[in-house]
Amino acid sequence: MTQPGGHFFQTIKKPVIATLHLKALPGSPSYRGEGLDRVIENAVSDGAALAAGGVDAICIQNNQDWPPAAERAETIAYMTRIATEMRREFGPIPLGISILPNGTDSALSVAHAVDAAFVRVKVYVGAVVAFGGIIEGTAYEAQSFRARTGAQDIQIAADVYDRSSSPLGSMPIEEAAVQASRQGMADALVVTGTSVEESLARVRLVKPRVGNTPVYVGGGTTHENVGRFLAEFDGVIVGHTFKRDKESGGGVDVARVRQYMEAVKRVRK
Q: 3-state class of 45 per DSSP?
């Protein structure tokens, strides 16, 4: 299959990947019966605002499915339907898939079905303690899926010590990053701290150890500080910053997106 913007992580300099937060999907305990069509309408509306604002890619994520259960069959089905609609509306924009809490085969299945460019995997190597208990890394499952389905063009962005969980054991973050990029063969890494300074401290440990593997930050950027991040990271993943009301999870505000992208353009120049 041909991926729009194929090999995304190697072709776009300092990209801005927007995370599109879906409303709760049918089958999730947090779903309130709005209907899948309404979920799709919200996704397309947010996608239109992100596209108009000039982001480089959109990553669809089921972040309002609480408690999350990644491998539910209905989640895969609904995400595929939504991603298909997004591809129809915004075909030229590279598309990513992220299924919480740690969907790997499920995200890759959706991505393969809709010609997405990449997936994001929250726990790729090692193991962590998170909301649902212990989550183990899925690098083997990811690479096995790509090998048996011929889906090598779907790239993998692997979080290293995602800030929403705590690692089991005391392996330094730079060692975990080496394992994810080398043995795990991730195409890109996502390194994010709980503050601006912690994120920058982490990337300074990781970047010298992972060669040409690009390293992205997964949160904490604004139009005011994105220059600091792009000076050291290879790109940024942005979600709540683009919302009209970040506290209540309101929809995407195109003015916020444009303000952010103007700051990015100044950095790129």
A: helix
Q: What pLDDT, in 10s, does the model give residues 20-59?
A: 999 999 999 999 999 999 999 999 999 999 999 999 999 9
Q: Quick check: bond before 67 cis, omega within 30? A: yes
With b for 16 or more beta-carbon neighbours within 10 A and e for fewer, the 210-242 pattern comes to beebbbbbbbbbebeebeebbeebbbbbbbebb
Name 167's bridge partners: 128
Report the distance separating Cα 210 and Cα 181, nearest Å: 7
What is the biggest distance separating any 2 CA atoms in the chain, rounded to whole angstroms? 49
- How far is the first Cα of the chain from the last one, in angstroms, to the nearest whole number? 34
215: nearest Cα among 236, 194, 240, 241 = 236
Q: What are phi and psi of 212, to 5 degrees?
A: -90, 5
- By CB neighbour count within 10 A (0-12 exposed, 13-18 middle, 19+ buried), where does 101 fall? buried
Whole-angstrom CA distances from 134 to 29, 102, 168, 208 are 21, 11, 9, 30
Indicate yes or no: pTM above 0.90: yes
Report residue 154: phi and psi, to 5°. Answer: -80, 115
List Cβ neighbours of 143 (8 Å cut-off, separation of 6 or more).
Answer: 184, 185
